[in-house]
Amino acid sequence: MVTIIVIIFLALLLFSLTKTRESPFSRTLSSWLPFVNRGRRTSSSGTPPRSLSPEKKVPSNNPPPAEYKDILPPSARENLAQAAKTSPHAQKDKLVGRTVDEAEIRKGLIPFTADYRACSPSTYTPSGFSVEEIKALGDFPNYAELSGVPLPEHYKEFKIETALPRPYRPFRWAYHQTMALTRMEDEWWLELEKTYAARIAEREQLFEKHGKLVLNYLPGSELGCKEVMEMALQFLCARYPQYFRLSHTPGKGHVFHNGIVKTETVIKDMHPLHVLLHNVPEDFAVMLRNPEDGKYYFRAGILCSSLGWSVDTKLGLQLKDIHAPIPDYKEKMEFSMDRYFAKLPTSRPIQRGSWGLEIDTPLFMPPGDPHEQHRLHQYPDLSLDRIHLRVDWQTLRRLPLSAAIVFNFKALFTPITHFRREPKVPALVAHILRHGKRSIMEYKNTWHVEHVALPALDQWAREQVDKGWVEDGWAVGTLEESPWWKGWEEAWREEQGF
Question: Is the pTM of this model over 0.70?
Answer without folding.
Answer: yes
